[in-house]
Specification:
Elements (H helix, E strand, L loop, with lengths): L8 E3 L8 H7 L9 H18 L6 E3 L3 H12 L5 E6 L2 H12 L3 E6 L8 H10 L5 E7 L1 E2 L4 E2 L2 H10 L5 E5 L18 E5 L11 E5 L1 H9 L9 H8 L10 H17 L1 H22 L2 E2 L11 E5 L6 H12 L1 E3 L10 E5 L6 H17 L8 H20 L1
Parallel strand pairs: 1-13, 3-4, 3-5, 5-8, 8-9
Antiparallel strand pairs: 2-10, 6-7, 9-10, 11-12, 12-14
Helix pairs in contact: 1-9, 2-9, 5-6, 10-12, 10-13, 11-12, 12-13
Bound molecules: pyridoxal-5'-phosphate.
Pyridoxal-5'-phosphate (PLP) binds next to α3.
Length: about 400
């Protein structure tokens, strides 16, 4: 191993770089999870999470990766053989669909070309067709991390309502919560699924469910086998800040700190920062003459950008070159777009210079890997960021 000076750039779209403040908060003695100090911590993080989910409903915390919270959302609300409608927006939607099938659900998987989000028009037509109201749930990945496409959940909600259909709406926000505006209550979502290691700036290991009242009512009838994931015991224990089994105490210390950071910056500012960095990234991509995978501008993701390399070139070779030359990790192409795209994560604890450094590493990598492109992407991004600062300064004057 050669010595590497300076910090590694972890620019994959999750896990993201954990801020020093959060790392220091985690570096504390473990406490008795049945003791009084823990109860206060539990109540504090459970309440803080409601603000981030923009909900008055309780939020459930699991010591698990996001995949566990996917499972929790399904097994708490559905019964064997239930029909579930899902959209193949990319790799993560595909994994969720596989899980649903394995759990004994009948999934209908609406295809896309992996360059756009869930289509509300298609959804409405399909639900209107379902005269028997057999479809029990609609599952959508809010921000598809494999493609950099953000589905418009308010339109999905409208489509379900327009069809007058009673299906539950389950939404994966693992790579959007805390980065892209998301409103559990206002958008009428029944179960929101989230994870710790992306916008929430924590290490991997925690995941979340936010169930609506309707989802909790459905859980009373749901017959899929569940034990570890059961909301009932969890919600009962959570009332006093405790958990039915040993929680990930130190990650909860980190969560308390991360929630404080989001609160200090203010969620609207957090979202605006992510939008700004995403737009700067797209300016760089266009200046390089490369193509953004997301084909619908209204669905551009603010937490990551997936970029296509020209035919005949290997995106993973570029990633390897960038890692070796610049000590930076970029996201790999997943599933159908393996080798064809690389992904720049610009979410979490991230500022202008992190972005400029990241884009500089990509631009050097493009040259080193011999990928046809024009120089000047970093400049285009810097120009945009500078203009934004000037606009803000003028508005404040
Ligand atoms: C990361 C991610 C997942 C998987 O989460 P794990 O924590 O790896 O289990 C699922 N969905 C989306 C949208 C993701 O970004």
């Amino acid at each position: 191993m050669t010595h590497r000076a300076g910090r590694h750039f972890l620019q994959i779209p999750g896990p993201t770089t954990v801020p020093d403040r959060v790392l220091r908060a985690i570096d504390m003695p473990v406490i008795d999870h049945r003791g009084p100090e823990f109860g206060r911590l539990g109540l504090e993080v459970l309440e803080g999470l409601q603000r981030v989910f923009q909900t008055r409903q309780p939020v459930v915390i699991y010591p698990a990766s996001g995949t566990g919270a996917w499972e929790a959302a399904l097994v708490n609300t559905l019964s064997p053989g239930d029909q579930v409608l899902m959209f193949e927006t990319g790799h993560f939607a595909t994994l969720w669909q596989k899980m649903a099938t394995r759990l004994g659900l009948q999934t209908e998987f609406i295809p896309t070309d992996w360059r756009r989000g869930a289509d509300a028009g298609v959804l409405e037509a399909r639900l209107r067709d379902d005269k028997a109201r057999a479809i029990r749930a609609v599952c959508v990945v809010h921000n598809e991390t494999s493609t950099g496409v953000t589905s418009r959940i308010p339109l999905i909600r409208k489509a379900i309502d327009a069809a007058g259909h009673p299906a539950l709406l389950l939404v994966d926000t693992i790579s959007s919560l805390g980065s892209i505006d998301y409103r559990h209550d206002e958008w009428g979502v029944d179960v929101t699924v989230a994870g710790s290691q992306k916008g929430l700036m924590l290490p991997p290991g925690l995941s979340f469910n936010a169930p609506s009242e309707k989802a909790r009512a459905a859980s009373k009838q749901a017959k899929l086998a569940r034990s570890y994931w059961s909301w009932d015991e969890m919600l009962a224990a959570n009332k006093s800040g405790y958990f039915p089994y040993t929680p990930a105490t130190n990650l909860l210390y980190g969560l308390r700190e991360a929630l404080a950071m989001l609160q200090e910056e203010g969620l609207p500012n957090v979202f605006a920062r992510h939008e700004r960095h995403a737009e700067a990234t797209r300016r760089a991509v266009r200046a390089w003459g490369l193509e953004i995978l997301c084909a619908v501008p209204e669905e551009y993701s603010s937490s990551l950008t997936a970029i296509m390399v020209p035919a005949g070139h290997d995106a993973d070779h570029l990633r390897k070159v960038v890692l070796e030359a610049c000590d930076m990790s970029l996201g790999t192409g997943l599933g159908k777009v393996a080798g064809k795209v690389f992904r720049i994560g610009h979410l979490g604890d991230f500022n202008d210079l992190t972005l400029v450094g990241t884009l500089a590493g990509v631009e050097m990598g493009l040259a080193l890997a011999g990928i046809p492109h024009q120089a000047g992407g970093v400049n285009a991004a810097m120009q945009f960021l500078t203009e934004r600062h000037q606009t803000r300064a003028r508005a404040a004057a």
